[in-house]
Amino acid sequence: MDYKVIPAVVFSDPEIAGVGLSETEAKAKGLNVTTGKFPYGANGRAQTMNASEGFVKLVADKDSGLLIGAQVVGAEASNLISELTTAIEMGATLEDIALTIHAHPTLGEITMDAAEVALGHPIHVLGK
Q1: Phi and psi of 67, rounded to 5°?
Q2: How many CB atoms lie within 10 A of CB 41?
Q3: For each of the chain's 128 residues, which pLDDT tens digit applies?
Q4: Helix (H), strand (E) at residue 9
Q5: What is residue 66's three-state secondary structure?
Q6: CA-CA distance, 41 to 31, in Å (whole number)?
Q7: CA-to-CA distance for 27 and 15, rounded, in angstroms?
Q8: Which residues pair with residue 8 across a beta bridge?
Q9: By Cβ atoms counted within 10 A, which residue in 44, 49, 53, 109 is the most buried?
């Protein structure tokens, strides 16, 4: 068991979930990081659910693109964190997440969009 990939979830409204390192924790460890944050409000499924409050934030090593942490605040965060937990455990990069085809329209697309923001080529919001 790799204890760095145990997700934490708060069943509040909206839900809050996280796994791995936060941006602050990664920087405190001296890591060079990049982040990508995508709002629920820019996601079609979140809008149809009347759940546009929240975001997905990805934290990755800037040089390798390796995902090292993620935070989700919003509807179904407790379910969305699973993909990100798997991604960290398997050593996925931001590019791996961005290239993964996500069903449309779904909340899971927010994860893909956050990776695209971190990579500097978002298509649903303005870049960093």
Answers
A1: -70, 125
A2: 14
A3: 777 799 999 999 999 999 999 999 999 999 999 999 999 999 999 999 999 999 999 999 999 999 999 999 999 999 999 999 999 999 999 999 999 999 999 999 999 999 999 999 888 776 55
A4: strand 8-10
A5: strand
A6: 30
A7: 25
A8: 18
A9: 109
Task: Count Cβ atoms below 10 Å from residue 25 Cβ, excluding itself.
Answer: 14
Q: How far apart are the first and last CA of the chain?
A: 35
Instruction: Please choose, from the candidates 33, 56, 30, the residue with its C-alpha nearest in 3D space to the C-alpha of residue 108.
Output: 56
Alpha-carbon distance of 26 to 36, in angstroms, equals 14
Query: Which residues are 58's β-sheet partners?
Result: 36, 70
CB 119 within 8 A of CB 38: no
Instruction: Please indicate whether residue 102 is annotated as part of the active site.
Output: no
Q: What is the DSSP letter of 26?
A: H
Q: Residue 105 to residues 13, 40, 42, 118: CA-CA distances in angstroms?
A: 22, 12, 12, 21
